[in-house]
Design goal:
Layout (H helix, E strand, L loop, with lengths): L7 E2 L16 E2 L10 E7 L8 E6 L3 E5 L12 E5 L5 E7 L8 E6 L4 E6 L1 E3 L2 E2 L3 E7 L5 E4 L8 E5 L5 E4 L11 E4 L5
Antiparallel strand pairs: 1-2, 3-4, 4-5, 5-6, 7-8, 8-9, 9-12, 10-11, 13-14, 14-15, 15-16
This protein binds calcium ion (4 copies).
One calcium ion binds next to loops.
Length: about 190
């Protein structure tokens, strides 16, 4: 599914005004970075400087993050996490999956059976190659992360094509358990 998202900065002047003005907009990322549309965005502090950074995925199979410098994402060139490794990354979110204090990234791609991957944050703005979490969920959609069993690691919830809610339990980032359906549509 091709969703067009235009990234715009909705504050008139972040450094000068505390009140948000939604009338003006500034393009944060121009089309020289992405020849196709942006699929999804996420916000997380990837380099632990207390400024939340911007992560985007694009229809031409890129995952890129932009450092937030004093409220502005335009100071630095893009930081490439992945190009052409994930076929149509359609959803992305951040969570610290291996409990090392660095926000990792979880990506769902758009294929006949959707795959879920994570990229380990290695520090200094670098990320690992993609690591497969699941290739067996048909219709995986958005992701939510929560330590659902309260064992200290962040687990993954997603939706499936059979109107089910699916849990993937985390073994502290070392591995992930097979997806389990925790809610069917007929339970309501
Ligand atoms: Ca940051
Ligand atoms: Ca981590
Ligand atoms: Ca857990
Ligand atoms: Ca666990």
């Amino acid at each position: 599914m091709k969703i067009k998202l235009t990234l715009i900065f909705l504050m008139s002047n972040l450094l000068s005004f505390s009140q948000i003005n939604f009338e003006n907009k500034i393009t944060l990322i121009d089309d020289t970075h992405n020849t196709y549309d942006i699929n999804a965005i996420a916000i997380a502090d990837l380099d632990n400087d207390n400024w939340k950074d911007l992560i985007i995925t694009s229809y031409d199979d890129k995952i890129i993050w932009y450092k937030n410098v004093n409220g502005d994402f335009r100071h630095f060139q893009r930081n490439i996490i992945s190009i052409n490794q994930i076929d149509i990354p359609k959803y992305i979110t951040a969570a610290d999956l291996n409990n090392d204090g660095l926000q990792d990234l979880i990506v769902v791609n758009d294929s006949s059976v959707d795959n879920i991957f994570w990229f380990q944050n290695l520090g200094n703005g670098d990320f690992s190659s993609e690591i497969l979490i699941s290739d067996s969920i048909n219709g995986a959609s958005s992701i939510e992360t929560i330590d659902i069993d309260n064992d200290g690691d962040i687990d993954i919830l997603t939706g499936g094509a059979t109107q089910a809610v699916i849990l993937i339990e985390n073994n502290n980032g070392d591995s992930f358990q097979a997806p389990q359906i925790i809610l069917w549509e007929f339970f309501y």
